[in-house]
Design goal:
- This protein is of the alpha/beta class.
- It folds into 2 domains: about 240 residues, TIM Barrel; about 90 residues, Lyase, Ornithine Decarboxylase, Chain A, domain 1.
- Strands 1, 12, 13, 14, 15, 16, 17 and 18 form an 8-stranded mixed beta sheet that branches.
- Helix 1 packs across helix 2.
- The longest helix has 15 residues.
């Protein structure tokens, strides 16, 4: 049976690294747990590393986080639809329309319900278009029992090649347009200013480029590449030490890249078509179709089917990969998500 090894100490250290990168810019870090299904041990490592809050896209995952962390700030990042009941586990709900906000208020127990309006700043995925920000913000703010505490956006997720700086500039315009309709939270700062939350890990590229070219605080006094953003939601940088981007991404300097390692057994190994072909007990129903990175030299990933992964071996590695041997892989974000969800992979925490 394949095993996913999860090193909580490395997750904590990666979280601390990202927190330190954001702090000089006045930005708090939210640890995103959706790749791990809201796992409480992973969440605990994020909080220990300095994450100010936790976020997930699934109500059941937020419910799990609330059970283990009754005092933590929690955000539900995706609107709900088709549900007959919704717990009040989240502190803030992300919505893009008044209709979504109304649906959540009907499902939640009576209380003031806090919302952030999702704004599309060029990613083309979720969020209200920029010309409609003022109108939709006013509609949500006008709901009895609702508090519109801020704006949120995603950058370069559905469109990885979308320019990050342009997304930040568009978000700044949205914040200026929404203006006084945002109530503020009292959370990100003592001033209770509105929450301006951006995601995801790809936005760290702006800080890395800025630090490398002009210094951590920008070329002008008080300047920051993140503009008005006071919260950044990160998952991939914390979990995998990776900053995704349109050109394939890069690793975060100093971060652990192997907090998650998938170990799978060799089922057979034969010389075929002029090379060693090793059949691994790992398939699409375990890790999906996304790429994985071999953790051993001389191993190259080939075709994957529903139950098997074929790898090609070179050099001395092929001598040690007989039946029953183990091969290790570093998952990428989507293969990690699939592995955490698969009932056919054992999870071991250390």
């Amino acid at each position: 049976m394949p095993t996913l090894h999860i090193n909580l100490r490395k997750i904590e250290q990666n979280t601390r690294l990202v927190t330190g990168l954001l702090k000089p810019h006045g930005v708090r870090l939210v640890g995103v747990t959706k790749a791990c299904q809201g796992n409480e041990l992973v969440a605990e490592a994020m909080l220990a590393g300095g994450a100010a809050a936790l976020a997930d896209a699934r109500p059941t995952s937020v419910d799990n986080l609330r059970r283990f962390f009754p005092g933590a700030a929690l955000e539900l990042m995706r609107p709900v639809a088709g549900m007959k009941k919704l717990s009040a586990a989240a502190d803030i709900y992300f919505v893009s329309t008044q209709t979504q906000a109304t649906a959540i208020m009907r499902l939640c127990p009576p209380r003031p319900v806090r919302f952030c309006l999702m704004v599309d700043t060029g990613d083309g995925r979720e969020g209200v278009p920029l010309p409609l920000v003022r109108k939709e913000a006013g509609r949500i703010a006008s709901l009895d029992g609702a508090e519109l505490v801020g704006l949120v956006t995603n950058a370069a997720c559905a469109r990885p090649a979308a320019p990050l700086a342009e997304a930040v500039a568009a978000f700044a315009r949205a914040a200026a347009v929404a203006g006084g309709q945002l109530a503020g939270t009292g959370g990100p700062s003592s001033s209770g200013r509105p929450l301006l939350s951006a995601g995801g890990s790809g936005l760290l590229a702006l800080l890395l480029d800025d630090a490398g070219g002009r210094g951590a605080s920008g070329s002008e006094a008080g300047a920051t590449p993140l503009g008005p953003v006071n919260e950044l939601r990160c998952g991939e940088a914390i979990l995998l030490g990776r900053v995704p981007s349109g050109n394939g991404g890069r690793f975060l300097p100093g971060a652990h890249r192997d907090a998650f390692v998938i170990e799978a057994p060799v089922l057979e190994a034969f010389e075929k078509e002029g090379g060693m072909r090793v059949l691994i007990g790992l398939g699409v129903q375990d890790v999906g179709l996304s790429r994985m990175i071999p953790a051993q030299a001389g191993i190259y990933v080939g075709k994957i089917t529903s139950d098997y992964l074929i790898v090609h071996c070179q050099g001395t590695e092929k001598e040690s990969l007989g039946t029953g041997a183990a091969v290790c892989f570093i998952p990428t974000y989507y293969s990690l998500l699939a592995a955490m969800a698969s009932p056919f992979i054992e999870k071991r925490f250390s």
